[in-house]
Every structure is written in structure tokens, then in C-alpha cells.
Amino acid sequence: MTSQSQGIHQLLQAEKRAKDKLEEAKKRKGKRLKQAKEEAMVEIDQYRMQRDKEFRLKQSKIMGSQSNLSDEIEEQTLGKIQELNGHYNKYMESVMNQLLSMVCDMKPEIHVNYRATN
């Protein structure tokens, strides 16, 4: 009987050791998963920073060229305004004289379709 109890006792101890090994393996697996997750987060952060840097470079190129374009457009607009003001000042007097002569120098004439009805 003692040999049976010793056998049962050995089986229980073997079962306990196996259970302990399983728990230890689960803990190691949990640690490895946690470590892998942390490493992945570090990689994601590095990739995000790299892409953000590339985006900022492209954005600065585009925005820089846009500011240059807006400066050029502003200069062209000012030049065109000055040109139009020059033309206005140059031709204003002659146009006003033409308008005044058309309005004031009227020659009364009878229309060609007018028929006297007497």
C-alpha cells in the first residue's frame, strides 16, 4: 500500500512540476509578447518620424515655391496696374475731347425716313 501511495505521490509531484513549467512558459510567452509589442511600437514611432520629416520637407518645398509664385504674381499685378494707370493718364484727355465733341457738336438733320404729311 505504501508503494501505491508513493507512486501516487510521485505522480502528483510530476503533475505539479508540469503545471509549474506550463505557468513559467506562459509567463515567458507573455514577456516575449510584451517585448515584441514594445519593439514594434518603437519601430512604428521611428517610421512615423521618418515619414513626418519627409512630409515636412515636401511641404516646405511646395510652400516655398508657392510663396515665390505669389511674390511673382504680386509683382506682375503691380506692374500691370502701373501700366494701366499710364495708359489712362496718356489717353484720358483725347478720349474726353472725343466724347465732348460727339455730345456737344450736334448737327441737326432730318432723318431719311421722315415724311412730311401736309
From TrEMBL:
NCBIfam families: V_ATP_synt_G. Pfam families: V-ATPase_G. Keywords: Hydrogen ion transport, Ion transport, Transport. InterPro entries: V-ATPase_G (IPR005124). Subunit of the V1 complex of vacuolar(H+)-ATPase (V-ATPase), a multisubunit enzyme composed of a peripheral complex (V1) that hydrolyzes ATP and a membrane integral complex (V0) that translocates protons. V-ATPase is responsible for acidifying and maintaining the pH of intracellular compartments and in some cell types, is targeted to the plasma membrane, where it is responsible for acidifying the extracellular environment. Residues 14-26 have a biased composition (Basic and acidic residues). It comes from Gorilla gorilla gorilla (Western lowland gorilla). GO terms for cellular component: synaptic vesicle membrane; vacuolar proton-transporting V-type ATPase, V1 domain. This is V-type proton ATPase subunit G. Residues 1-34 are annotated as: Disordered. One of its GO terms (molecular function) is proton-transporting ATPase activity, rotational mechanism. V-ATPase is a heteromultimeric enzyme made up of two complexes: the ATP-hydrolytic V1 complex and the proton translocation V0 complex. The V1 complex consists of three catalytic AB heterodimers that form a heterohexamer, three peripheral stalks each consisting of EG heterodimers, one central rotor including subunits D and F, and the regulatory subunits C and H. The proton translocation complex V0 consists of the proton transport subunit a, a ring of proteolipid subunits c9c'', rotary subunit d, subunits e and f, and the accessory subunits ATP6AP1/Ac45 and ATP6AP2/PRR. One of its GO terms (biological process) is synaptic vesicle lumen acidification. The gene is ATP6V1G3. Belongs to the V-ATPase G subunit family.
